[in-house]
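User: tokens in, sequence out, please.
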């Protein structure tokens, strides 16, 4: 059952923050892949957050002020096109189901928008997100300006609507957290399936196929990002996506993969032995990354600032790198010089939501912002060791990352992805099962 009032209340909150003016928020364009084939369509996240409407060629217009209004422009009903491409709501159907004050065919956008912009003091738009839209909206504003001798004025302020929307999306409501739990649960099941399917002699893409199977079998619409299935040395390539190598006995397999459900992403990484048993060096590095990850999760609580989980993970890793003779000198010197970055060169997490790297600033007034209930983020420390003369050979080509998704609660955080095993014994037990 579509929750009309949820989306209407998001629009009302945005309108009251605009105070006055008109907002124009288009959904994403369809993108041609080649010939007549398009990439799978994915709506714009801001547009979907405010409407729940996922057809292409649609624009939301909001009017703030004494008489607030939500107006949708969408594809007209067209039986001929619906025979080829499927159902479309049309303005009347969309107005009824999605709860807009008015809806019009998208072909009327320019004409109606010129009228709606007239005498408005401010224009709000995702500026710079899509250059053709910037050009079109500024051209329409110029048309309004041209009516000056009729006594009509054009908006003389232009704001990036994302300043307001990003802040709203940063704090997830209970409906959003419910969807995120579903995408986390399906993604977790996919990782467990992948662990069970892995053995020496398989190809990375065979394991990728297991992940995709589990996503779709459970109703996820798509992967949230291109899956990384990286055996052995490939795990030391942070954005490895070729997924076409043979999995060999004695190597680790790093999988960073998750699905999107109803517009919300999960983001999970697990690293485990291809043959089901960690060797000594692998276990040493794995236990180190795991202890950094567990400590970082404990640091993700309300009132902590954004960087506390990262700082915590880095301290644990730096101590471990010294203990394992990967880094030399005191832990303080390793932290101070940043020499740990040779093995841990990325950050410990990012906001998570409709986008896998979700919207929201990380600093306010140049200070790391405080974590608050409803914020969702990843915790994903790692260690990537390339062969080098000054590195003990047993560690060469070990690449490990462990990534979970957490939502900040009043007490601490909820780990949305905890169903995937990550303790050494839990992984080995799972992989031993027939
Ligand atoms: N999968 C993308 C990331 O972990 O940031
Ligand atoms: Mn991530
Ligand atoms: Mn990831």
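Assistant: Sequence out:
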């Amino acid at each position: 059952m579509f929750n009309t009032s949820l989306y209407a209340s998001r629009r009302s909150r945005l309108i009251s923050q605009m105070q006055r003016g008109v907002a124009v928020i288009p959904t994403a364009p369809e993108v041609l892949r080649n010939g007549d084939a398009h990439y799978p369509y994915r709506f714009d996240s801001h547009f979907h957050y405010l409407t729940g409407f996922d057809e292409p060629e649609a624009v939301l217009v909001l009017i703030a002020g004494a008489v607030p209004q939500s107006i949708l422009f969408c594809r007209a009903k067209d039986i001929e096109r619906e025979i080829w491409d499927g159902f479309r709501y049309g303005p009347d159907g969309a107005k009824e189901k999605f709860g807009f004050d008015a809806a019009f065919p998208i072909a009327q956008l320019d004409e109606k928008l010129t009228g709606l912009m007239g005498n408005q003091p401010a224009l709000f738009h995702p500026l710079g997100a899509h250059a053709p839209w910037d050009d079109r909206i500024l051209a329409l504003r110029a048309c309004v300006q041209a009516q000056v001798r009729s006594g009509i004025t054009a908006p003389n302020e232009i704001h990036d609507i994302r300043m307001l929307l990003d802040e709203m999306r940063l704090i997830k409501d209970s409906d959003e957290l419910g969807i995120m739990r579903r995408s986390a649960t399906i993604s977790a099941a996919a990782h467990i399936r992948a662990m069970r399917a892995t053995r020496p002699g398989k190809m990375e893409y065979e394991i990728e196929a297991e992940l995709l199977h589990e996503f779709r079998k459970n109703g996820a619409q798509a992967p949230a990002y291109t899956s990384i299935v990286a055996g052995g040395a490939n795990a030391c390539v942070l954005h490895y996506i070729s997924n076409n190598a043979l999995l060999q006995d004695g190597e680790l397999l790093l999988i960073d993969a998750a699905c999107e459900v109803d517009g919300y992403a999960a983001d999970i990484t697990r690293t485990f032995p291809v043959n089901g048993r960690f060797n000594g060096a692998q276990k040493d590095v794995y236990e180190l990354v795991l202890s950094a990850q567990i400590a970082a999760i404990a640091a993700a609580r309300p009132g902590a600032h954004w960087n506390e989980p990262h700082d915590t993970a880095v301290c644990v890793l730096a101590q471990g790198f010294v203990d394992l003779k990967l880094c030399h000198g005191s832990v303080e010197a390793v932290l101070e010089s940043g020499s740990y970055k040779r093995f841990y060169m990325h950050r410990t997490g990012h906001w998570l939501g409709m986008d896998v790297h979700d919207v929201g600033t990380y600093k306010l007034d140049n200070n790391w912002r405080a974590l608050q209930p409803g914020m969702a983020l990843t915790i994903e420390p790692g260690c990537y060791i390339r062969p080098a003369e000054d590195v003990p050979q047993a560690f060469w080509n070990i690449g490990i990352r462990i990534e979970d998704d957490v939502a900040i609660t009043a007490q601490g955080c909820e780990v949305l992805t905890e169903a995937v095993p990550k303790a050494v014994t839990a992984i080995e037990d799972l992989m031993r099962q027939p």
